[in-house]
Cytochrome c
Amino acid sequence: MKKIIQSVRIFPFALLVCLPSACFAQSLDLTNRVRVAAVGNSLAERMNLFGHFESLLLTRHPDKEIVFRNFGWPADEVGNQQRPGNYTTIDDPMEVFSPELFLCFFGFNESFAGRDAGNLENFVADYRNYIDQMTERFTKQGKKPSFVLMSPIAFESTGNPLQPSGVVENQNLKAYSDAISRLASENGYPFVDLFTPTSKAFAAELGNQYTANGAHLNERGDALVGVLIDESLFQSPHPTGIETSRFAEVRKWVNDKSWFHSQDYRMLNGWYVYGGRRTWDTETFPTEYAKIRNIVAVRDQYVWDLAAGRDVADQPDDSSTGEVFTPETMFGSRDEGFRKMREPEELKYTTPEESIATMKVPEGMEVKLFASEREFPELANPNQIAFDNQGRLWVSCMSNYPQWQPGSSKPDDKLLILEDTDGDGMADQCKTFYDKLICPTGFEFFGGGVLVVDEPRILFLKDTDGDDRADVVEQMIDGIATDDTHHTMGAWEYSHGGQLHMLEGISLSTTLETPWGAFRNKNTSGGYVFDPLSQSFTHYRTPGYGNPWCLVFDQWGNGMVGDGTNARQHWVSPLSGKEVSTRKTLRPNFDNEGIRPAVGSEFLTSRHLPDDMQGQFIYACVINLHGMPRFNLRDEEGTAGFEGERIEDLLASTDMVFRPVDPKIGPDGAVWFGDWCNALIGHMQYSQRDPNRDKQHGRVYRLVNKNKPLLSPITQAGKSIRELLDQLNAYELRTRYRARREIRDREKADVYDALARWIETNDAPRQWCEAMWIQESFRDLDEGLLDRILESKDFRARAAAIHSITNERDRVAGFKMRIAAAVNDPHPRVRLEAVRGASFLTTPDSVSIALSVVDSKMDYWIDYTLEHTLHALKPFWSGQSADELLIDSSPAAKAHLAKHIKISGPGGAAVELLAIAENVDAGMKDRKKAIDKLANVGGGKASRGEAVFKQVCSACHQVGKLGKKFGPDLSDVGKRMDRKQIITSVLLPNEEISKGYETVSVLDEDGIANTGFILKETETVLSLGIANGKQVDIDKDIIEIRKPMNASSMPEGLITQIAPIEFLDLIEYLKDQRDTSKNIE
């Protein structure tokens, strides 16, 4: 037991006593056990991290046992509160809590709309509507809830020229603060002015004193604002202040309580907890919600006791918070078609040496173990690897995958540092850099530290004392999607210009709150491009992708992105023009022959590897090939794009628990890769709590060439800038990658001085591009260097320059001029990059600039890019004829636009209907009504639909010999179903599940329950495949309850990843499939 001793009152912020905090005329009166909810944007949500205000509230009123919950959510506005699909299916966390007092934190995200009268009026109207809705929902037994309206805080000037200055932002924030004040005054709501006092506090000290990025409070800022709110609400200084030992102890456990509460209202894996993929866990998560809420209630009592000075145990007692449900394993319960290449025959894990023995590699190559769980038990479930500037291997490990389970210790997913200090080729040291992560799906080095996913946040971690442990932990970004913990932002990779690309799958809800305002995305797979210097985001779509897991850049900066689901690989440039919702699928770079799914990709560029491997492309595959397929990839002659073909696999294993991930060329020139090492693979194919999801195994291997020596590692730590610049001439692309990364961490002035001297003796187009990429990474391109590159004879350099100019378009004065010239470049790849760039132009002549490309030879890739650029530029051509708009353009340009205007209509009628039909939160009546209408929308072509089927459906379905038979064969679907039925099966896959692919729950007259796949059914017997690979035969006469489990393995939302016209094309293609011949498997 311990006793908290009352300490003397100390105020750490002398500034506070002289800061005005406009509020209401009298102190807020709180009743015993009042339920208080904080709602709003990240200003509210980040209080979960630091807990000052709640701790002040509890210690000011130790006798009232106030029940406080924070429901803040990044990017929330009064009129826009985006949540994951089906968020309230099980229950609504706020409805369960039923607040009596709302503390409202709105206005920050809304302020980016500007302060004109119309926007302010809309904001106030939305605020009134929000209060009315909350009042209606939470009036209980005639008692209405109360509201306190908080103004936004001021914007703190960070001094970073790449981030907002705060001048315009504060003008807008002031206007919205005043609007909230008027709303409160007119309606009698208490109002707390945080803007005025924080403006003064922020002005007193320059730089990031109170915020992490100008907009979001750090710990010091949270303390400041906590005291301001407390003193405003209760009209007096806090009786003890924030520097007593009691306050510190209360705050510690308040923050602990807040963490558990966040696992309730922001529970990870929502698609499986309450969404469309709630397949095997109908019993699981209701018990987990209950346990979390009981754990939080235990902490309520604990902090009340602490605040009141009562004796407490050393920590809360969770022994009576209830049990969670653990289902039986589904391992071995499926048919052979499912199990083949997915599950081992028996649940047995090979040793690393036994696994290596099963691996087939090209002649002269061999696989060597670097580290495993045997030597380092913390190396469990590795999912991404990277090498630091000392040449050490870092590994992210996800033993808490797929999500933390209530009742277990807090998540301890790790970033590890593995090092071979004695040169024997195996790790002999494993250091844990950080061990408090949840599902770290991506990480990269930045700013002398590392950025890493900690769902739903991105953290910045840094070691400042040299012990290889993170002692700086900052929450940099909040709001990354967590609806599916293996679809969230992963496959992190820097572009050559220092933009961090992060990939995300479908059926997710991303709500990022940044210094530039809210950035939202929902149900759209693609790539986020994050600038860690400015903390700004852009996004590009990857149509047809379920879950992109592959991204790598070639030596000229061309990005190659790949889907995890179907493993097809695509060129990024055509996809990454200005984002449009109508983007169609893109032709893949090569036929991957259905080898899937993929987990990381790489170019084989290393002097250690055989000469005939140089430049080849690989990705890691974890199901129908346990290994790494290999491809040639080259420029497609006469076009802008690329082509290639599959060749001999780099590695293929018969070990079914071997799951290779994230191949990388290491500093020694070998191919390094992790091994997830798990008998169960798949997120929805098993219960999230299947007891056989492995959380102990993990390996790291190297593929080496026995006929060539390993390279002497080239490292970056401690090297001069000139030495780092010289590394940009290294043969290995990964050496250049790590050199660029290190250079970005050096002082800009020193880098530019050294770069000016380096380029004098490195006078070739690729070296000019390296200099340009270094400048781009500092967001400061030299236009003289750009023009030198654009005048070079190497089309690859010219294309790279246009790509960089487009990336930096807001900071390059001659952006439009250079785009207009490059559209007429002699090489198609340069022209494509220019057409991509034209999609971002903002003047009426942008249409004529883009269309001038048709005066040169066109190809598939340019056609694709131009089509979507014209979609982006629609505001400039809509409502005009081609002749009116393009007075000075060529007849070819006019004809092309006229044709585009004509054909841009088909599919348009399906847009709104698809949006309704695919909306899981819409009523089923409305969804089916939309499907009825879709059945009558024309415009699709079966001839085009085959390509859509191949891209989107063939990973799981077959038509004839096209595709894979994981799901129902569709060769005769047009004979079995009419048009409406086909549309329904695609948009509502859980509505009717094909025979042999359904699951049922059966209760017999003896009270015995079984759940499983229907293997066979006769008139008298139902045969189920159940847990542990068993078959149970049930007499149908004794079945009391037979309940279908309406959850298809086909994800809802998949069709949102293709253009509306492609959906219509796909339906026409499927409608035409009527083959019932015997040769169909």
Q: What stands out?
A: The first helix runs from residue 42 to 45.
